[in-house]
Design goal:
By secondary structure, the protein is an alpha+beta fold. It is built from 15 helices and 13 strands. The protein has a 6-stranded mixed sheet. A 4-stranded antiparallel sheet has the order 2-8-7-3. The longest helix has 41 residues.
Length: 542
């Protein structure tokens, strides 16, 4: 198969290892909000200084420098708060490091494409696998200038990577840039300042097993009472003993509330985070904890009850159910969604579509869902797609990483396994082998529905193509060969069908003489008449 790249092996996606729930802090007094703002601003300043120190360490960071930073923070807060701040700092630095590596990879891909196209003659046509030359000398000149700019950016990014320099903005780079475009964002300077300060606050605490209710800094009792251990400089704001402040709000998690109550009753670790939604003016508490990793079932066990293949598209999921042999069952199903609008709207649309997909899988009794392991990291470059701006926006708007994380976590709650397959050629081969054969007057098959079958068959371990078509006449069983998939160990899987009539077998007669069968007449005129035509009296008229 020349030109076809090697396909990656399918695998069962590991289940989630953590849980997070959120509840609103209602009926807070002005004093409560003032204490929360003071704590957030104080600990946020400590977090900003710790992040600055961590970025200054660069690649020279080690356990010794970590311990020194934590000791310095303990003087201004507490040991538990210092531990939470340093851990959050390291997570943020590591995220920036990964983003830096992805940025370098993206620049390298763009440089490679530009060099290839600039090396071709002007006007040379491209192929499906490689772009051609540029259409005019002016475009060639502009792209050569862009190549030089990308090479400079790449060299600077590589130098930062080798030196261990990262650029991190506490509060977010997007919100920082919004400060220069307040009119477009429809914000005043005071409104922007409130959002900026709220994003830079730090009111969080990691859980600790064995401590009372699983967290000593932010404590929530089973009856919903919430208290905070204030840092040393703010101890004068406490309204109870041991430097604690009890809020008037009562907590009761509606989602996973029983699981959360069991954990705190057993004094197991629960991490809490308090944050303010400035736009709505609401305070929220997020509780999170680790759970035992769901054991991944073997791939062969997952395939035993069939499969649902899902093709991910820009506006819908195209799903098709298959049995364990890879045969399509029933009709295709489509679960639509709308990815326009805000990130919250897109996330809600994805959740709703995944909920309908999982509910359908539970109803039909399938335990596994096959999905493509999509990653458009290398496909979003401007140099690769050129003027196809709408297509670049399309693939950039598909939340592939969030979609996989959502699907895995939601499917695990229903006892479903997720099998990730290589997405190569699924749409092409699905349309080639399955779209036309399954199209009927009462069933409309799209290219995406056929791709769902291809994905499901690949997850089951079967080839995408259908079995060999029936042989021509006078071979095997006269164009009536079975095309349904059968298990390799099934008996007579390649045998011919039994005869439809009880015709005597062909060959010599028992007497040894071959009897010639009379040939059928070619025309009605030559056929011997053995019937006498009689007119029925009931047919007469008049």
């Amino acid at each position: 198969m020349g030109g076809v790249r090697a396909l990656a092996v399918s695998f069962v996606a590991p289940g989630p290892c953590g849980v997070a729930v959120r509840d609103r802090l209602k009926h807070l007094t002005a004093q409560d909000e003032g204490v929360l703002r003071a704590v957030g601003a104080h600990q946020g300043a400590l977090a900003s200084g710790d992040l600055k120190a961590r970025c200054a360490d660069g690649l020279e960071h080690g356990a010794k420098t970590w311990a020194e930073r934590k000791r310095d923070l303990t003087k201004e807060s507490s040991s538990r708060i210092a531990g939470a701040i340093t851990k959050a700092t390291h997570d943020q630095w590591a995220l920036a490091r990964r983003c830096q590596a992805a940025h370098i990879q993206n620049l390298a891909a763009g440089i490679k494409t530009l060099r290839h196209r600039l090396s071709l003659p002007i006007g040379e046509k491209g192929t499906k696998r490689a772009a051609g030359g540029y259409r005019s000398e002016g475009e060639w000149f502009r792209k050569s200038r862009r190549l030089a700019a990308l090479e400079d950016r790449h060299a600077a990014a590589v130098a930062d990577w080798q030196a261990g320099r990262v650029r991190v903005v506490r509060g977010g780079k997007r919100l920082l840039n919004t400060r220069h475009h307040l009119a477009e964002a429809r914000l005043t300077e005071d409104e922007w300042r409130q959002r900026w300060e709220a994003e830079r606050w730090f009111i969080a605490a990691d859980g600790e097993s064995g401590k009372r209710f699983g967290n000593e800094t932010i404590r929530v009792t089973p009856d919903g009472e919430m208290s905070i251990k204030l840092p040393a400089p703010l101890a004068h704001l406490a309204n109870t003993r041991h430097g604690r402040y009890i809020l008037t709000a009562r907590i009761g998690f509606a989602h996973r509330g029983a699981e959360w109550a069991d954990r705190i009753a057993a004094n197991r670790a629960v991490a809490y985070r308090i944050h303010l939604d400035v736009e709505r003016g609401r305070w929220y508490l997020t509780a999170s904890w680790q759970r035992p990793v769901v054991k991944t079932i073997p791939l062969e066990t997952a395939r035993a009850r069939g499969m649902i293949g899902v093709d991910t598209n820009a506006d819908h999921f195209a799903a098709y159910r298959l049995d364990r042999h890879g045969n399509p069952v029933g009709d295709p199903h489509r679960f639509g969604y709308d990815l326009s609008g805000t990130a919250g709207h897109r996330d809600a649309q994805i959740r709703h579509a995944l909920t309908r997909l999982i509910n359908w899988a539970v109803r039909v009794g399938v335990a596994v869902i096959g999905i493509e392991d999509l990653d458009f990291t290398a496909e979003k470059t401007r140099e690769k797609h050129g003027r196809r701006k709408r297509f670049r926006q399309l693939i950039s708007g598909m939340p592939t990483a969030k979609l996989k994380a959502r699907l895995v976590s939601m499917a695990a709650e229903q006892g479903l396994a997720i099998v990730a397959v290589d997405p190569a050629y699924t749409s092409l081969w699905g349309a080639q082998h399955w779209q036309k054969p399954l199209t009927t007057p009462h069933r409309t098959m799209s290219r995406h529905d056929a791709a769902g079958i291809a994905i499901g068959r690949r997850a089951l371990g079967h080839p995408v193509r259908r079995r060999t078509a029936p042989p021509p006449h006078d071979r095997s069983d006269r164009a009536r060969h079975r095309t349904a998939q059968a298990e390799p160990g099934a008996r007579r899987r390649e045998g011919t069908r039994p005869p439809t009539t009880d015709r005597p077998p062909k060959g010599p007669s028992p007497s040894g003489k071959r009897k010639r069968e009379p040939s059928a007449s070619n025309t009605v005129r030559d056929a011997p008449s053995t019937q006498q035509w009689v007119q029925d009296s009931l047919m007469r008229t008049g």
